[in-house]
Amino acid sequence: MACVLIYSRGTLVRESMAKMLQELRSVKEICSVANQAELSDIIKENDPDFVIADIYSRNYGTDLLDSLVASYSPERIILHTTKENRHINYYNSVLGICHFVYAEDSVDVIKRGVEKILAGVNGLIPDNYSGILTNRECEVLRLIALGKTSKEIAEQLCISKNTVDTHRNKMLQKLNIANSASLVQFAYNTGLI
């Protein structure tokens, strides 16, 4: 059972997140903090298994996350943010944060995401990548990672080769990845394969 620390300047976010966490059997203790200056002290005092940091309520600079990562393991940080946050790749590749839940999702979806993370599943981009990639893009990415050519993927999915290439290019843009080899690595790192 886990101890979870909630960090948010928003009272409503802290209260609703705490209420949601109370319903999870895997959570034994919940604490929260609203002041960034107190965050490191609370972490040292409580030694939580995970920290949920709300970066949706306010426009934070990287100082919050740099401070959090400096005093806490990034694998134990869950960011509460929006699907439109264009810095997710940065948070993951530079800061090492790999768990995200999205403010636009329903409480049930957030709850399932947190449960998976607490159970040890990589929360970088759960299920169908929580809106970052479409279901079809996920299918194409799986087949790319399995070594299929665009022509083979097109035949298997009953779409044109041009459509496969369009999906590939959109994924490269969405994920801010340079080439298909990096897409394959991404698929392996996120558990898609």
Question: Helices, strands, pairings?
Answer:
Layout: E1 2-7, H1 11-22, E2 27-33, H2 36-46, E3 50-54, H3 62-71, E4 77-81, H4 88-93, E5 99-102, H5 107-118, H6 135-145, H7 150-157, H8 161-175, H9 180-189
Parallel strand pairs: 1-2, 1-3, 3-4, 4-5
Helix pairs in contact: 2-3, 6-8, 6-9, 7-8
In short:
With 193 residues, the protein is α/β, with parallel strands linked by helices. The chain has nine helices and five strands, in the order βαβαβαβαβααααα.
Return the structural class: alpha/beta
- Mind describing the biggest β-sheet? 5 strands, parallel
Helix content: 40-55%
Low-confidence stretches: 125-130
Morphology call: elongated
Topology, number of strands: 5
Q: Whole-number average pLDDT?
A: 83
Compute the number of helices. 9
Instruction: Output the radius of gyration.
Output: 18 Å
Q: What is the H/E string? A: EHEHEHEHEHHHHH
Distance between the termini: 29 Å
What proportion strand? Answer: 5-15%
Strand order of the largest sheet: 2-1-3-4-5
Q: Could you please describe the fold and organization of this structure?
A:
With 193 residues, this protein is α/β, with parallel strands linked by helices. Helices cover 49% and strands 14% of the residues. The chain has nine helices and five strands; from the N terminus they run βαβαβαβαβααααα. It has helices at 11-22, 36-46, 62-71, 88-93, 107-118, 135-145, 150-157, 161-175, 180-189; strands spanning 2-7, 27-33, 50-54, 77-81, 99-102. It has a five-stranded parallel beta sheet with strand order 2-1-3-4-5, with helices on both faces. Strand 1, helix 1 (11-22) and strand 2 (27-33) form a beta-alpha-beta unit. The longest helix is centred in the C-terminal third of the chain and has 15 residues, at 161-175. The protein is elongated and about 55 Å long. The two termini are 29 Å apart. Residues 125-130 have low confidence and may be disordered.
